[in-house]
Amino acid sequence: MGFFAYLSDVTGIRTPEVTAVPIIALVGLSVDAWLLMPVLMARSQPFGRYLAWTFFASMGITELAHFLVFPWLNESVVAYVPGMWSVLALAPVAWWGMARLASGRAPSKSAARHA
User: DSSP assignment, residue 61?
Assistant: First the structure.
């Protein structure tokens, strides 16, 4: 069972079709933000930093719900939830990114000029 099928079982809400306009728009928006983030960070734009914090926080904090929340939503037994294994790789990388952003070691305009 995939993650979205799991959420559908838990919430009782049907998973939307992949071809639904809102789904396509959300995927397009997130891909655009991922592609725009490094460009804005290299130019020291505050919105680039905002996007970086948003993505790192979602991967480093929100993804932990796969371990801390989702297994307990199943009424029958606490079990594996799709996506748990990916958290083991994503969360530490996101923590590293947040640490770099917090310490000021993220790419800056002067670093981009010297490269």
Answer: T
